[in-house]
């Protein structure tokens, strides 16, 4: 997987979380213009995050398309948000009083957010199961070692979070089971960044080697500095004794 795609996904997720944490505060809720700005930015970066998840899915079967992916993933959400802002003089972004959040009004929510999110998730789910079927076919190969099978299983588990499939729980959060699916959605979505870090940074051997080499280098530099200080101190003491 291209590290550039993963970096773009992490950037969009990070900005989404920052906007949510900083924007859903009393000072933003009280000012209409600020509330609309927060809602529009949240709308944009949520769509951008899901678009980058779809790009990662597509990357499973394609390569060398980072420029087109960037234009699509950052550009298409911008078009959707711009159209949403232009229609109805920005009044599609409102303050929802009972929830105390800045977000889309009902009809724009379904048209400008739920529809594209649903489309992306359907694509991601289909591709996810195609990947699983391909891996199952490979599992039947007797030459495939046990360690490789274990890694592929962990890979599937990691793809679940990377493809953004935790968003599927949000679509099932209706009726009597709403609370259960809401908890699942919040839990898995909140830890998406953590899972990406574990599976695609810490779990990769080359990343661990780089981290270890940096730590070892720092330790060597620190030990060398202490040794130089000790030698300098010892040399100074010896000179003082000779003068005495």
TrEMBL record:
The chain crosses the membrane at residues 5-25, 37-58, 70-89, 109-133, 153-174, 180-203. It holds the Pfam family 7tm_2. Gene3D superfamilies: Rhodopsin 7-helix transmembrane proteins (1.20.1070.10). It is a multi-pass membrane protein. GO terms for molecular function: G protein-coupled receptor activity. It is found in: Membrane. InterPro entries: ADGR_G7, GPCR_2-like_7TM, GPCR_2_secretin-like. Residues 1-204 form the G-protein coupled receptors family 2 profile domain. GO terms for cellular component: membrane. Keywords: Membrane, Transmembrane, Transmembrane helix. GO terms for biological process: cell surface receptor signaling pathway. Its main location: membrane. This is Adhesion G-protein coupled receptor G2-like isoform X3. It comes from Octopus sinensis. The lineage of its organism: Eukaryota, Metazoa, Spiralia, Lophotrochozoa, Mollusca. The gene is LOC115214957.
């Amino acid at each position: 997987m291209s590290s550039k795609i993963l970096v773009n996904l992490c950037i969009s997720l990070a900005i989404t979380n920052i906007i949510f944490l900083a924007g859903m505060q009393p000072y933003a809720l009280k000012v209409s213009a600020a509330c609309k700005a927060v809602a529009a930015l949240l709308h944009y970066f949520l769509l951008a995050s899901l678009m980058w998840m779809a790009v990662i899915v597509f990357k499973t079967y394609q390569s060398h398309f980072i420029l087109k992916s960037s234009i699509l993933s950052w550009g298409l959400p911008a078009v959707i948000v711009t159209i949403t802002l232009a229609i109805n003089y920005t009044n599609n972004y409102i303050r929802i009083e009972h929830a105390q959040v800045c977000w889309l009004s009902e009809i724009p929510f379904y048209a400008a957010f739920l529809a594209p999110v649903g489309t992306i998730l359907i694509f991601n789910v289909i591709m996810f199961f195609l990947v699983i079927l391909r891996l199952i076919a490979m599992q039947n190969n007797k030459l495939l070692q046990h360690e490789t099978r274990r890694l592929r299983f962990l890979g599937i588990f990691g793809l679940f979070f990377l493809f953004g499939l935790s968003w599927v729980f949000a679509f099932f959060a209706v009726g009597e089971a709403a609370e259960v699916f809401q908890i699942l959605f919040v839990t898995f979505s909140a830890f998406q960044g953590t899972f990406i870090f574990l599976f695609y940074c810490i779990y990769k051997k080359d990343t661990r080697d780089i981290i270890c080499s940096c730590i070892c280098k720092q330790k060597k530099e620190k030990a060398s500095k202490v040794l130089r200080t000790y030698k300098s101190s010892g040399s100074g003491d010896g000179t003082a004794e000779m003068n005495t």
